[in-house]
Amino acid sequence: MKNFIYLLFGCLLTAIGVTILGHSQIVTGGTAGLALSSSYIFELPFYMVFFLINIPFYIFSVLRMGWKFTFLTVLSISMLSTMTYFSYWLPEMTFTPLLGGIIGSVFIGFGLSTLFLNGSSLGGANILALYLQKKFDWDPGKVNFVFDFMVVLSGFYYLGLVNGMYSVMTIAIYSSIISYFKNQIKEKTHKTEQKQLILKTS
């Protein structure tokens, strides 16, 4: 129950961040960024695109990270999709790209870190970042930044150079927040693996 509350809290923080970025005409990285970009281009709801775009990554997650992690990831994606769906009912908010980018990225950074610390993610590059940390001890924040930067580059065409640069700023901010928690994330992952090993051998 405690773990679920943390996941709910992490999704809420991330949903607030994504909503603020959306109202600021800024994209983020990862599958959330792809979904946000696609929702602009095809004029589809973010929550729908975000859920569908993550489906291929579930297979990789099951093979490399296990069923429990995959289940919690699907749960987190579903919760975030639901929260962003209801955000469309909220009054229109207006943020400058600079202010919206800073505030939104801070919410996303702490939201993703909360999910990572509780054995979950939001799919896509999140899964790959955690896998590479687990396998090669790579910094998940830096891995996220590289992949998210490539996603943001795809949004420069319709966002323009200025808003595109603000988008790069946002991924740099929340990737730095994730990097700050990298040791705690690694330790949490190691403890979870030890518990699973004990259960298997008992």
UniProtKB/TrEMBL annotation:
InterPro entries: UPF0750_membrane (IPR051461), YitT (IPR003740). The chain crosses the membrane at residues 46-63, 70-90, 102-131, 143-159, 165-181. It is found in: Cell membrane. The keyword Transmembrane applies. It is a multi-pass membrane protein. GO terms for cellular component: plasma membrane. The keyword Membrane applies. Keywords: Cell membrane, Membrane, Transmembrane, Transmembrane helix. This is YitT family protein.
